[in-house]
Model the fold of this input.
Amino acid sequence: MTITGFGIEDLITLQKLIDAEKSDLFDVLEFIAYSAEPITREERVAHAQARIFELLDPKQKEFLDFVLSKYIDVGVEELDQDKLPDLLELKYHTVNDAMEQLGGADKTKGLFIDFQQYLYNVRFA
Done:
């Protein structure tokens, strides 16, 4: 796979060279394109968390706090929709228990997808 003329391996190497292993490849691309300092995933979450949690109930906040902690630890691949069932099982032990807690399949999927826009919505440094 190639992004902007760079292969993923090239971006990962550059990520290490600019000491941005705790940042997303998105930040590496911004560094290449705009010389923008990389933002760590932890900083990205800290800046977006208030907006993410703004209209959520306590159970939704608890789940997204769990998801965000996995994102900080592992990376953006934890936000892939294919990861949602695994995350639900990890947090709630079964998908059915998760659906009970979070209000059903559609609401849970929407919750998981919708919050992600706030992580990349605004550049802060």
The chain has a mean pLDDT of 91. The first strand starts at residue 2 and ends at 3. Residues 41-120 form one domain.
